[in-house]
Amino acid sequence: MADLDLATFFLALLAGAIRVGTPFIFVSLGECLTEKSGRINLGLEGILVSGAMAGYAVAYLSGSAWTGVLAAGGTGLLLGLLHGAICSLPRVNDIAVGIALMVLGTGLAFFLGKNFIQPQAPSLVAIGLGDWSDDERVRSALSINVLFFIGVALAFALHWGLRSTRWGLMLRLVGDHAESARALGYRPVLVRIAATAAGGFLAGIGGAYLSLYYPGSWNEGLSSGQGIMAVALVIFARWQPMRCLWAALLFGAAGAIGPALQSVGISTGYYLFAAAPYALTLAVMFITCRPNQTLSGAPGELSLTR
Amino acid sequence: MKPRNAVYRAGGLLLPGLPTLLAALTTFVLFMLFLVVQGKPAWQACQLVVQGAFGSAFAWENTLQRAAPLMLAALCVALPARAGLIIIGGEGALVLGGLAAAVTPLWLPGLPVVPLLLCMALSAMVVGGFWIGLNGWMRQKRGLNETIGSLLLSYVAIAIFNQLVEGPLRDPASLNKPSTIPLDDSVMIGPISDAFQVHWGLVVGVIACLLAQVLVRNSVTGFSLQVVGGNVRTARMIGLPVDRLVILTCVLGGACAGLAGMFEVAAVQGSANAAIIAGYGASGILVAFAARQNPLAIIVCAILLGGIEASGSLLQRRLGLPNATTLILEGILFTSLLAWEALTPRIVAWRLRLNERAEQTQGALQHG
């Protein structure tokens, strides 16, 4: 009996890590890209929510979930562009703009999404990797959305791209030392706008995953702060795409611990587990930070670490 | 020659208000445009926003009621900002402060109302001050970035709040909406007067802003803070207690946020429940930045934001616009306020030139 419970628990945890973690992968990779260019975008929460709404609305209107995913990315791209452009003006604080964008994005999503709360849009299909099994729990745990695999591939691609391509090097140079980038003839402002827009695109897709797959419908309480958590996650992952992937799964698992424990009948500390990722990031920061030295791996131009 | 001189002088005085004016104009145009594209009656909506915010005594009461916690939450950003810190975790201090205030009467039964209220305020301020002070301490001792640190701590605070309110501190009678044991009616903070139905939090908020203004502008501590915020190395060199000053601003800011939570509990909700996690932290950040971290301007900006929020129900009733309309208006307003801030360096230059012109004409008058 105890064995069975343990198996249930770990299956629920694994399924949760993938199911809850997938949007984290997209949002954190997006934020990682933006922060690598030397800016922080706290507005990802707003972008995520508008992406979720736009994705759901377009999927409903067009009848195709993938069109919805693209629309969500496009919405995120536009909002990211807005953030990038405004922060390029002199004396504008990127943290404050991020929070304004969070309000604006959420407002737009709630306003325009009012009519899409009721209808049922087509949702993204999952691949049943567990169909060989007779066990219902195994099958439901291993039915994994395609976006998860795209996210994993993207993490590898970004890892390679940032390390070994001209674009990646330029992005990192702009984020580490804008002066040198300028001396080499690059234009840091444009690079940063592009990086923020690309980050917005990915965050938008993360939103589409929420509304089109899991939980799988559009409503105003859809996001539980995934956009904000991404900021913590990127720091936890020390600005490395591969670590973002693992951290996203870890955070997904942490978010799933509460429900997983509940599935085996333990419900104490449910809310505390929800904050585990934040506490974990804080602990890591507290241990690794030194008064006279910034976090290792942090982009040098990032306002957070200067 | 003389009138031209006056024009130059007036221009020099009015220029600093230019970004705010342009931001208001941009917001108006964009908001109208948004509604027109939606096929909604844009002009009528704008009228209703003004009417719902400041159009009647009832509207004013509603506006000021909402402005009170915003002032206190904004101080949680503005005070540490004097020392160069960007704290964005006021929400955490607010909810824990509110919780502390809500449970104080349980631990101090039989205390008369006024001392009890003071104890509630004190415990809210201590808890809030501790929570943000922790950020200041972590920054000074470990170099942990205060912006991210406060954000993370804020979510930890909300989790602790939820855990306690749903668990050990839950009133068994609150079935649908988990809450702490409700405050006795005699402890509830009432309106300032029958004719003016706004709770005392407004008075406390305004007083806190005034005190903050005195602290940052007219006190030695405020001057030291400005040095710390301007250049830490200089501050250390002239022997200022940098760590203590930084932590002090954080504690004071957190105490303000905690107080906001106490008023939400003791003047609005009647108990600590999830309704006090209403995004006052984020609104406070926007108010503080819109006010350029100036405590007096915070009063004005908080009233403005409170007004926008108050107009939501009128928009909904009359035009059937969703609640989120006010969020969009806020978002556009703050985005354009921040964007037009970019003009500041130019404005400084323009003012210098205007002053020069004024002096030249003055000189010409004297010589001629």
UniProtKB/TrEMBL annotation, chain A:
One of its GO terms (cellular component) is plasma membrane. The chain crosses the membrane at residues 6-30, 42-59, 65-83, 95-113, 142-162, 189-212, 218-237, 244-264, 270-289. The keyword Repeat does not apply. One of its GO terms (molecular function) is transmembrane transporter activity. Its main location: membrane. Keywords: Cell membrane, Membrane, Transmembrane, Transmembrane helix. It is found in: Cell inner membrane. It is a multi-pass membrane protein. Signal peptide: none annotated. This is ABC transporter permease. It comes from Pseudomonas abyssi.
UniProtKB/TrEMBL annotation, chain B:
Keywords: Cell membrane, Membrane, Transmembrane, Transmembrane helix. The chain crosses the membrane at residues 12-36, 72-101, 113-134, 146-165, 198-216, 245-266, 272-289, 296-315, 321-343. One of its GO terms (cellular component) is plasma membrane. The keyword ATP-binding does not apply. One of its GO terms (molecular function) is transmembrane transporter activity. It is found in: Cell inner membrane. Its main location: membrane. The keyword Transmembrane helix applies. It is a multi-pass membrane protein. It comes from the Bacteria. This is ABC transporter permease. It comes from Pseudomonas abyssi.
